[in-house]
Write a structure and sequence with these properties.
about 35% helix, eleven-stranded mixed β-sheet, alpha/beta, disordered N terminus
Length: about 375
């Protein structure tokens, strides 16, 4: 990729005390180029890649200060894929889960930077800082495979121009719905590597609590909650009936209808369980201050994953600790390349609505394909 002359912008970047260097600013989005910036010490790098005409994906790379140079064991890079679809890896995964700073902008003792470089992306396009230029121009992806194609284009842009990154194995790590993106990306990336279009080493894929088999999830909810005394017999009967309906819809490839039935099932379970929290059954939704996913109507159910993670804080909205506020405030000022008239997450609802037809599609076969190709694959699941 050819770049224009580098501009040096002096001063503090959003109060983080680092000077930033920039290549072409975001006013060049109408051309097929990448644009971005890096800290002066090279510890952070971020930017946009136009993965398709008028579709811009944002990424943020952290280089670890714990890096150990060992030719026999190259330092890894972790690509974090958030769920949703529509959950921001750059925001939620970074500041709420594994990045160097938490949502209060304090150092995180358990950051994964201790063991790897971290690459966060806002995927699919429309998530977080990623955006399409025209929301009415059919630019949002509709399938996991389309999302994987965009991610592959992003990786080609980032890795093919950086020989240093090419030396490190890339591990794709995903959470929740992100697991479906991870397995489709794994296959797409392997194809691009074999064709000589992508210069990276795929180290492996890790799937955490992932939505790769929606049928198995919905069939388990009723019996599990009955065993925990969160559902009575009437609630169990209604939950199981809807779960069986979903099973049949999936087997008949009626995925959009299955998505509607899934939302209905969450509503039934919420009503009969006194609003159990779907992401931690030890809690009641809306009762505990760290669990704010109440009223799982159809529309809210479809956003409950992102709502759950983005609400894991006890401070009221508007200050440090409120993710939306910091992403549209101090973080946006630090990054400097986010379009001034664009807010973090403003297109996220569009992401889910366009993917409703693929939301309940299983991706078990893709897991088998990765294993057959010899990919190191880990699947883990846990409650807390």
């Amino acid at each position: 990729m050819k770049t224009r002359s580098v501009r040096l912008i002096s001063g503090l970047t959003g109060g983080f005390g680092l000077t930033a260097m920039f290549w072409p600013p975001y006013d060049c989005f109408k051309k097929k180029v990448a644009t971005g910036a890096r800290t002066h010490d090279g510890s952070e790098e971020w930017g946009y890649v136009e993965v398709r005409p008028k579709a811009h994906m944002f990424w943020w790379l952290y280089r670890s200060s714990y890096r150990v140079e060992d030719s026999s064991k190259p330092w890894p890079i972790i690509l974090w894929l958030q769920g949703g679809p529509g959950g921001s890896g750059v925001g939620i995964g970074n500041f709420e889960e594994i990045g160097p700073l938490d949502a209060y902008l304090k150092p995180r003792n358990s950051t994964w930077l201790q063991v790897a470089d971290l690459l966060f992306v806002d995927n699919p396009v429309g998530t977080g800082y990623s955006f399409v230029e025209d929301k009415n121009a059919n630019l949002f992806v509709k399938t996991d495979d389309e999302a994987a194609a965009d991610l592959t284009n992003l990786l080609e842009e980032i890795f093919n121009r950086n020989e240093s990154l090419q030396k490190s194995p890339l591990y794709i790590v995903a959470e929740s719905y992100g697991g479906k993106f991870a397995v489709t990306l794994g296959l797409s990336a392997l194809k691009a590597i074999e064709a000589g279009n992508l210069k990276l080493k795929l180290g492996g894929v890790a799937l955490g609590d992932t939505w790769i088999s929606p049928e198995d999830f919905v069939l388990s909810w009723g019996p599990l909650l009955k065993d925990l005394s969160r559902l009575d017999n009437n609630g169990l009967k209604k939950a199981n009936s809807l779960a069986e309906k979903i099973r049949q819809q999936i087997r008949e490839n009626q995925y959009a209808a299955a998505t509607d039935s899934w939302a209905d099932l969450e509503g039934v379970i919420s009503d009969y369980s006194n609003s159990v929290d779907f992401y931690n059954f030890l809690l009641d939704s809306g009762v505990d201050p760290v669990s704010l996913t109440a009223e799982l109507s159809k529309n809210i159910a479809r956003k409950s994953y992102s709502g759950y993670l983005s609400s894991l804080r006890s401070l009221p909205a508007g200050g440090v600790g409120d993710l939306e506020s910091i992403m549209n405030g101090v973080i946006k000022r630090k990054l400097k390349i986010i379009p001034a008239n664009f807010s973090w997450g403003e297109q996220s609802d569009n992401v889910f609505s366009h993917m409703e037809g693929d939301f309940m599609r299983p991706r078990i076969n893709e897991v088998d394909e990765l294993l057959a190709k010899g990919v190191n694959l880990t699947i883990y699941s846990g409650q807390v």
